[in-house]
Amino acid sequence: MSLSKQLIHWYLQNKRELPWRKTKDPYRVWLSEIMLQQTRVVQGLPYFLKFTEAFPTVFDLAKAEESEVLKLWQGLGYYSRARNLHFTAKYVAEELGGIFPKSYKELLQLKGVGDYTASAIASICYDEPVAVVDGNVYRVLSRYFGIATPINSTKGIKEFKELAQTVIDASQPGVYNQAIMDFGALHCKPQNPLCSECPIANSCVALVKNSTKELPVKEKKIKIKKRYFNYLVPVTNDNQTVLEERTGKGIWQGLYQFPLLEAKNEIDENELIQHEQFIKLFPEETTISLFNKEEIIHKLSHQHLVTKFWVVKTTNVSENTMSWSKVKEQPVPVLIDKFLEEYLNEDS
């Protein structure tokens, strides 16, 4: 039996029951695939259910405000996905009459849709025989065929895509693609793969050579950058605060935050109050307290944010204020959401 047939046989007995697998609606398949980029199924599932309830069709998503989309996305991370999702929904609804492109090449033209997502939609919804290649697929193929080419290298990306395309079952490409992804996620796992009960163990090169733990190979990671964030949390006499939208092309674009003072290294209270940004924001006398007594390190893919939340009580601030009830309605990064949860619970 071929590798593709063995994987499909395994899948039909072991597949996860997921809502986006009960349909060939490209809107729902697209939504699920965008959400599951860099995200585990168990984390993405509740978001998929929230989104499909709030936006049952691509027209509903297109009509939504970006802030509403970002608020529902809050906690899922990689917020550019949400902004691209909203942009593409508007494009499909307004320019394509709500009908998604029906081929891999056309799907690739949509903003936020790369090789993996286009392959998934084209194969699952339209039976086009294009192979998906994600982390799970890299792992299964590199182990099964014993390939040590780094999966995050230009050569590796090309090599594995070509290999995946030769393995795919052209008669049922959507089922096969879901089979190999589920097999990688549930059986050929990164740690402790279930080799002793594996249906393809007899022909797995990594198992024969005892190299399962070494595969797949990744080139050395990008150096992690450390940044020092000091959030200034104003609390005025009439219990107002300041929340501002993050602009520019950096992290969390379009989300809201307390005024941020970023430093080159960790600073104390004396350094804080002498900073030009602090003096400008708080023209009158203040009382300051550091909310988090222990260091908060918020880890992103290529940077670690060493974060302090400074609660600053004052009579006046130089920026427009907002009531705390409005703060809770704004889309914020998970780092600030966690602070708000602790601060508001402590304050209530």
Automatic annotation (TrEMBL):
- EC number annotated for this UniProt entry: 3.2.2.31
GO biological process entries: base-excision repair; mismatch repair
* Lipoprotein keyword on record: no
Provide the catalytic activity annotation.
Hydrolyzes free adenine bases from 7,8-dihydro-8-oxoguanine:adenine mismatched double-stranded DNA, leaving an apurinic site
Q: Record's SUPFAM superfamilies?
A: DNA-glycosylase (SSF48150), Nudix (SSF55811)
Family classification: Belongs to the Nth/MutY family.
Cofactor annotation comment: Binds 1 [4Fe-4S] cluster.
A Pfam family recorded for this sequence: HHH
Name of the protein this chain belongs to: Adenine DNA glycosylase
The family database entries (InterPro entries) matched by this protein are listed as: A/G_AdeGlyc_MutY, DNA_glycosylase, Endonuclease3_FeS-loop_motif, Endouclease-III_FeS-bd_BS, HhH-GPD_domain, HhH_base_excis_C, HhH_motif, MIG/MutY
Segments forming domain HhH-GPD: 35-186
